[in-house]
Design a protein that fits this description.
The structure is a homodimer of 310-residue chains. The first copy, chain A, is of the alpha+beta class and 310 residues long. In chain A, the strands form two sheets. In chain A, strands 1, 2, 3, 4, 5, 6 and 12 form a seven-stranded mixed beta sheet that branches. A four-stranded antiparallel beta sheet of chain A has the order 9-10-7-11.
């Protein structure tokens, strides 16, 4: 059994336009690097070697809170040292906190010879998400851990399903503005029109069928959100223009990544993904907001091990 | 090309618990028998040889209204005689009107050497549904025409998808009470809680994934409706007891068929389907409401031709 493990914990996209709170997918890039090592001292020590000045006190740290609940559930006292090189910018809407939370418990589980199930890891990691946003959501944690496109049918009881999907090339733009997850949640209405809810669940069913049948056109037609996007997109300057022009450039569809501000587009091939990136670059350059783009792929495996030492 | 055709047009179950207005499936039984024949006189003549005293004037008849819109869209004058032996009881919630509407246009299309696409046939048949209930819904027509389990992602523009499904045995009980589709629609609330809508679309996604993966347990877990069933089931005496006891007898799940009053249960095998039928029989015998039961299977082909004459 290894005493030390280094992993890549990937960025994720929650909601996937019509699948608010239930769908998510994992990206090949960006990803955080995390090294977890057994320590002779009981308890948890956390060190960030990135630029984000995140709290290193375990109970205030996203990965820490997740790891502490795993350690509590384990039947023997444990000691760990965790080093995090965070590359996924916090607040980007790309599952930065989920990468920490899921990565920490994934790494520990490997050092503990898979003592816990995926469902248990998801539950531990949700305690990390609670530290980040006050809500125990799992729509980034699940694709981060399982890879691919994932469905959370139910949180209580936890019921997660990994969906088959064809190859997808994904373009992301992260305009460097702040949208707090809590604010993005607060502006949503508590009630929705039944008529719109029906349209939404038609699209969700279409998206799931399209992914599982590998039908790119159906995926594209189903990437429509009549409930959340019309409200939240107001918080993201340039959103409508980005979406329209990316579709014209050949993207299958896309929308807000998580609660934003990042915007993602799914594409059938890399050529289109690059054209879509050019569109995003033009728009945010003209608007004058700093931004970062990624051209990447659907990550079918989720978190991956890059080094293990005995 | 045949001059005369006889078809079986099957009963269908709309909504499928969590898929209100978007999902439906076709049954092997019951079915209507319909014979359509070219006539030397232009126009349409309709004759019912069943016991239901349905209007035979084409524009007031469900199959007639559907056929008239097909005849109007055809570029030459046509003459047809249609004979209907209706076996699916009107008002049962088993797609009786859809069987007429879809059956009529399907038969005509065969006599016209497939002049129209399935999408066109669905649109013609929707005019028949309008005569029946005042609403141009397609959730019974679509599975009747295409067979299997169907998804209507969108009505405008029409976007229907046939979903893969494993073998399903289906038990139906039709308590002989009247629930008007228009009443069943009227008692629904125009607004729903976002929280419930999210639960609903998690279940819809789970149901689609379960059907396509052939995962019976996931199908069962997903057959939950937190929006429509709690309201509509009040109109059906015995509903809660039937559902609970059928699940205890091994049914995967089920609920109201269309807008009721029929109740259906999906089962993994025929043995369970028969046990579920016994449960239904016991309950309605005790309550003292007349009823009819069916033990049947998912019909993967939809309408089928049983005779053609040159």
């Amino acid at each position: 059994m290894p005493r030390k493990i280094t992993i890549k914990s990937p960025a994720t996209i929650a909601n996937l336009v019509c699948g608010f709170d239930i769908l998510g997918l994992a990206l090949e890039e960006p990803y955080d690097l995390m090294t977890l090592e057994f320590s002779d001292d009981y308890g948890l020590k956390i060190k960030h070697i990135d630029e984000y000045h995140l709290p290193e006190k375990p109970e205030d740290n996203v990965a820490g809170a997740a790891l502490l609940s795993l350690m509590e559930a384990y039947n023997k006292p444990l000691g760990f040292t965790l080093t995090i090189d965070k590359i996924i910018k916090p607040g980007s809407g790309l599952g930065s906190s989920a990468a920490s939370a899921a990565g920490g418990v994934f790494a520990a589980n490997k050092l503990l010879n898979n003592a816990f199930t995926n469902d248990e890891l998801i539950k531990f990691a949700m305690n990390g998400e609670k530290v980040a946003s006050g809500v125990k959501h799992a729509d980034n944690i699940t694709p981060c851990l399982l890879g691919g496109v994932t469905l959370i049918r139910s949180i209580h009881p936890l019921d997660v399903i990994k969906l088959n999907s064809p190859e997808l090339f994904i373009t992301v733009v992260h305009p460097q503005i702040e949208v707090k997850t809590s604010d993005a949640r607060q502006i949503l209405k508590e009630e929705v029109q039944l008529k719109k809810a029906i349209k939404q669940w038609g699209n969700i069913a279409g998206l799931v069928a399209g992914l599982m049948q590998g039908d790119y056109d159906l995926i594209g037609r189903s990437l429509e959100d009549v409930i959340i996007e019309p409200i939240r997109s107001i918080l993201i300057p340039g959103f409508d223009e980005v979406k329209l022009q990316c579709m014209q450039a050949g993207a299958l569809g896309g929308g807000i990544s998580g609660s934003g501000p990042s915007i993602f587009m799914l594409n059938k091939n890399q050529e289109t993904a690059l054209q879509v990136e050019a569109v995003m670059t033009n728009i945010y350059t003209r608007i004058g907001i700093d931004f970062k783009t990624y051209v990447t792929k659907l990550n079918s495996k989720g978190i991956s091990i890059i080094n293990e030492e005995a």
